[in-house]
Write a structure and sequence with these properties.
By secondary structure, the chain is of the alpha/beta class. The chain contains 13 helices and 9 strands. The protein has a single domain, classed as Inosine-uridine Nucleoside N-ribohydrolase, Chain A, CATH 3.90.245. Bound molecules: alpha-D-ribofuranose (RIB) and calcium ion.
Length: 310
């Protein structure tokens, strides 16, 4: 059993990641913490509670986090995730209330309680993780590991940006937070666009049609969540579910260690994850970057757990 906190900005693929985490007996979801990113923090927190309520889960705290990046202005992606952040999905106003603790308070509290048994999974901008580290500088040594969905590392032919030609959205949305986190000393694994946009790891239009044909509550929710993006982008990249899958079954993903810096000043490159791939480089490695995925097993896990409910 792996105890996790999922820090998230739901968001269509975040919603799928929450479904995956809560449908996987390998994971004990200690909390969801929400962060500004795809949508405002308020919408992210409400959406996280909506998904929990859909699942009938009432005992997982949903703690509100940062409402703005450390320096940048919020730059939501509602053109991608929809005005509410859940595509075409219509879920009722949740009865569940936000936790009284903030995201930072809950992350630090659980790190003190669980120590190395706790895995942090961040699938949105890293603002909450950076703030938690600034509140508790021992955090990297306290928790077992930090797994992020974030970055574009150039380690595969898909390793280029989405928010810009070179920057991936979660890093780009709060580069200062990402830079702090990448330098903090976490045991850090990064699932980046290098693998999430690989066609072999995506929800294809035919897989979407299989889901849409189901006459089940999950089938209807997932197809409403994903329909617009599948039509616009000829399928859906399962960015955030792949990061959660790395915690469920690490054997699904091959990681390789690199030294990575986050660009903060470049006019055209701000938010880029600059990866030192020079043979024999002596730069200290700080990130294990996902370089390959067992695509068939990942998609099978996704269908079994998310679509069919475990
Ligand atoms: O670049 C993909 C990431 O940005 C995903 O986490 C998606 O939800 C958005 O937040
Ligand atoms: Ca996300």
């Amino acid at each position: 059993m792996r105890h996790i906190i999922l820090d998230t900005d739901p968001g269509v693929d975040d919603a799928l990641a929450i479904l995956l985490a809560l449908s996987s007996e390998e994971l004990q979801v200690e909390a969801l913490t929400t962060v500004v990113g795809n949508v405002s923090q308020e919408k992210a927190n409400r959406n996280a509670r909506r998904i929990l309520e859909f699942l009938g889960v009432e005992d997982v705290p949903v703690a509100p986090g940062a409402e703005r990046p450390l320096i940048e202005e919020p730059r939501p992606a509602e053109d991608i995730h929809g005005p509410e952040g859940l595509g075409q999905a219509k879920l009722p106003e949740p009865r569940l209330k936000p936790d009284e603790r903030s995201a930072v308070e809950l992350i630090v509290e659980k790190a003190e309680e669980l120590g190395g048994e706790l895995t942090l999974i961040a699938v949105g901008p890293l603002t909450n993780i950076a703030l938690a580290y600034m509140a508790e500088p021992r955090l990297p040594e306290m928790v077992g590991e930090l797994i992020i969905m974030g970055g574009a590392y150039g380690v595969t032919s898909h390793g280029f940006g989405n928010a810009s030609p070179v920057a991936e959205f979660n890093i780009w949305h709060d580069p200062e937070a990402a830079s702090i986190v990448f330098k903090a000393g976490f045991k850090l694994k990064a699932v980046g666009l290098d693998v999430t946009t690989d066609p072999r790891n995506r929800m294809s239009p035919s897989l979407f049609r299989e889901i849409e044909a189901l006459e089940t509550p999950r089938g209807r929710l997932i197809s409403d969540l994903c329909r617009d993006l599948v039509q616009r982008f000829n399928g859906l990249s399962l960015h955030d579910p792949l990061a959660v899958a790395a915690a469920i079954d690490p054997s699904l993903i091959e990681f390789k260690a690199f030294h990575v810096d986050v660009e903060l000043r470049g006019e055209y490159t701000r938010g880029m994850t600059v990866t030192d791939r020079r043979p024999g480089s002596r730069a200290p490695v700080n990130v294990e970057v996902a370089v390959d995925v067992d695509s068939e097993r990942f998609l099978k896990l996704f269908m079994e757990r998310v679509v069919y409910g475990g």
